[in-house]
Design brief:
The chain has two domains: 297 residues, Peptidase S8/S53 domain (Rossmann fold), CATH 3.40.50; 126 residues, Jelly Rolls, CATH 2.60.120.380. It is elongated, with a radius of gyration of 23 Å. The longest helix has 18 residues. The protein contains ten helices and 19 strands. The termini are far apart. 22% of the residues lie in helices and 24% in strands. It is α/β, with parallel strands linked by helices.
């Protein structure tokens, strides 16, 4: 299916009717009570949101639509700003497939407060039709719409085998705007992503800057169908998840049960929303650090199915906010050029620090301004037990693309010795703004090491 839009369509306004009967409120309470009594919530050690007023974060659900009248979703869906990018005349508040409504229900259940103070606001962004098909352009348009509406989290419970620059660019833009992007790892059960010589990955989970989530059972064991890979950041329950049915408002069943990483991603999104309720100023990098550092099960070892482990709500809420990597985003050439240079014109020395992360943030770039004939000496030091490489790229280098052809055209030099310190020396053959890349190498487990890079320019 192809769904291309030059610009986001006007928001579709279809407010939920006011709840006028006491019986309706009683039904809502019964629905919420049924949802929060499930075993998978005990697996993340869920506890209810404390009573009282909260600043509910806006979470964009890019999916098949959300039925706002479904069980337990009253006063939790932003119907006035919902939008559709699906092929044809879509309606984001109608969900024939039911998938988006279930995802929204899981997020709401984890983040739930009272009906008056719901703890989360769901922004329905329809990017897929009744059969669940979508396109890269529809996904990218949906992401940019969520950015325009100032969402704090974007949930992508999607799966596809083709990488798209259009989607990656939109995700990069979202991260630069302070939005956390959470995605399902996929439901193929394959372990071919990040394996040497094999590049079969599931997207959007395998994109850079995405928090990819694998699925487990209630005991924390990875589901066989959950896609593996070094891109998997952490895991959450995904088996037999009962959530609201989109058919409920029309007299159909009020609940449905599904299994898969779509549901697991929604669980993590709900936990992230709870973190934002507690600390509204957390950045995407801080949210990611907290979620991974507080996860249970892997003890720092590489787990290609569960990443850092199973998400744990009370441990995440109890963690102190980590220090900011203030220089982010510097993970591609355009981002680095918007930041202060490591060595500015007319200067001979510069230093900066940063943080890398296995798979999702493998490389950082810094600008070094050189005149023809000047000698650059760059040194990178990473925390003990880790390995970094250094690369020098020509002025004008575009965003990184793997392959020998790209390297032959743009790479000046590289230093790829093993160890926690790397030194690169090179004389400039022309004047310009070069890029020094620090790249995490040889990681056999999920790590988030800090590094320091210095550059000295001499004649």
């Amino acid at each position: 299916m192809i769904a291309i839009h030059a610009a986001p369509p006007p928001p579709i306004v279809a407010p939920v009717r006011a709840r006028q009967a006491a019986r309706e409120s009683q039904t809502f309470d019964q629905d919420v009570g049924a949802l929060i009594g499930q075993a998978w919530l005990r697996a993340i050690r869920w506890r209810p949101l404390a009573a009282g007023f909260v600043q509910a974060p806006l979470v964009a659900v890019l999916d098949t639509g959300v039925a706002p009248g479904a069980a337990g979703l009253a006063n939790r869906v932003d119907t006035g700003r919902a939008a559709s990018f699906a092929f044809g005349d879509g309606n984001p508040l109608v969900d024939p497939q039911g998938h988006g409504t279930m995802v929204a229900s899981v997020i709401s259940t984890v983040a739930s407060g009272s009906e008056a103070a719901p703890g989360v606001r769901i922004l329905p962004v329809q990017i897929a039709g009744p059969g669940g098909e979508t396109s890269a352009q529809a996904v990218a348009d949906g992401i940019r719409y969520a950015i325009s509406r100032r969402a704090r989290i974007i949930n992508l419970s999607l799966q596809g085998s083709n990488r798209s620059k259009v989607e990656q660019d939109a995700i990069d833009e979202a991260v630069r705007k302070g939005i956390l992007v959470i995605a399902a790892s996929g439901n193929t059960g394959k372990d071919t992503c990040g394996v040497r010589g094999i590049t079969q990955c599931e997207y959007p989970g395998a994109y850079r800057h995405v928090l990819a989530v694998g699925a487990t059972d209630e005991g924390g064991a990875a589901l066989p169908e959950s896609t593996r890979g070094m891109h998997v950041a952490l895991a959450a329950p995904g088996r037999d998840i009962t959530a609201a049915s989109a058919r409920g408002p029309e007299g159909g069943p009020r609940f449905e049960t599904r299994t898969g990483t779509s549901m697991a991603a929604a669980v993590v999104t709900g936990v992230a929303a709870r973190l934002l309720v507690a600390r509204p100023t957390l950045t995407p990098a801080q949210l990611t650090e907290i979620l991974m550092a507080s996860a249970r099960g892997s003890r720092g070892a590489l787990d290609r199915a569960r990443g850092a482990g199973v998400v744990d709500l009370p441990r995440a809420l109890a963690m102190r906010p980590p220090a900011l990597d203030a220089r982010e985003p510097d993970d591609d050439a355009p981002g680095a050029r918007r930041l202060p240079a490591l060595v500015r014109p007319g200067y001979s020395f510069g230093q900066r620090s940063g943080m890398l992360r296995t798979w999702a943030d493998l490389r950082d770039y810094s600008v070094v301004n050189l005149k023809k004939g000047q000698l650059l000496t760059a040194e990178a030091t990473v925390s003990r037990g880790n390995d970094v490489d250094l690369y020098l790229w020509k002025p004008g280098t575009p965003p990184y693309r793997g392959g020998a052809k790209f390297a032959r055209k743009w790479l000046v030099a590289g230093s790829v010795n093993k160890g926690s310190t790397e030194v690169l020396t090179r004389r400039a053959d022309r004047t310009g703004a070069y890029l020094v890349e620090v790249r995490l190498a040889g990681a056999q487990r999920l790590v988030r090491p800090r590094y320091v890079v210095t550059a000295t320019v001499t004649r």
